[in-house]
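User: Study the shape:
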Amino acid sequence: MPLPVVPVLEVGGSHVTAAAVDLERARIADGTRRRLPLTSGIGSEDFLAALAETANGVLSATALGARAVGTTWGIAVPGPFDYARGIARYQGVGKFASLDGLAVGGLLTPLLSRRPDRLRFLNDASAFALGAWHTDRTGSRRLVAVTLGTGVGSAFLDRGTIVEDDPRVPPEGRVDLLTVDGRPLEDTVSTRAMTARYTNRTGRPVDGLRELTSLAATDAVARDIITSALRALGGALAPWLTAFEADTVAFGGSITAAWPLIGPPLVAGLTQHDPRLRRLALSVHEDGEDKALLGAAVFAARGA
C-alpha cells in the first residue's frame, strides 16, 4: 500500500498554494495543486477563505483517486509568525497588517472539509530548505537555504534539522536581521531597496525585480545596483556560512531566474570574505514553490 499523500499549504506575499505531496516520489501528486492570489492588505476573513478554498480544492481533487490523505497538514508561511501556536504576528512589517494576532490555526481548522488532526506551521524559507535537503542532500551535512524575492529569507539545516537558536547562525536563523554598513540588510537587498535606488538615480520608476533584472541587460545603472546589492549580500552571508561550516547553499525565490546576472556578484561577495567558500556546493531552484511544498510535507510527516 502506498503511503498517504501529505496535504500542504504554502503562503507567499502574493498567493496561497495548496497541494498533496507524494513523499515516496518527492513530488506534487498530479492534478492536486491549487493556487489563489493574495494581496498584502487582505482582510482576515478573505485570507482564511482563500486558504480554505485552496485546501478544500485539494481534498476534493479527483486526481487523488483512492489515495489515502494524511491528517496532519504542513503549512509554510512567511514570518513574523508564532509557528508553535499558529498565530500571525505581522506588525510593522509592511505586509498582512490586518492579520496581526490572527489565530490562523484555530480559525482555519473548522473551515476545512476534512478536519485535520493537526496543523504544523513553519517558516516558508525553512520549508524551502527542507525541500531542497530532501531532494539534493547527496552527502551534505549542513545546508543553508537563501530565498531572494521581495526580501531575503533563510534557513540553516544541520543533517536535516532546522537550527535557529545557536551561536553559529544569525538570531532565529534569519539573515534578514543582519546589517550592511550599520543598516538593516533589506535596506540594501530587497525589491523595495533596489527599485527605489534605481528610481532615485534615474528618475524612472521600475515595476519590481523582474523589470529591473530585464533592464540590466542594457542599462548600466540597473546592472550596477543589482551587482552591488548582491555582492553586499554575499559579504553579509559569508561569516555565518563559515561559522556554521556549511557545505551546501540552496538559493530560491523569483530573482533566481536571473542567476547569470546575480550569481557572479553574490559568489564574489562570499569568496572575498573567505576563499574557502569556493568549495561550497551551490544549487539554484527556480521552482522554489515546489521545494517549499515538499518541505512542508516533510515537516508535517515528522510530526504526524
Observations:
- The chain has eight helices and 15 strands.
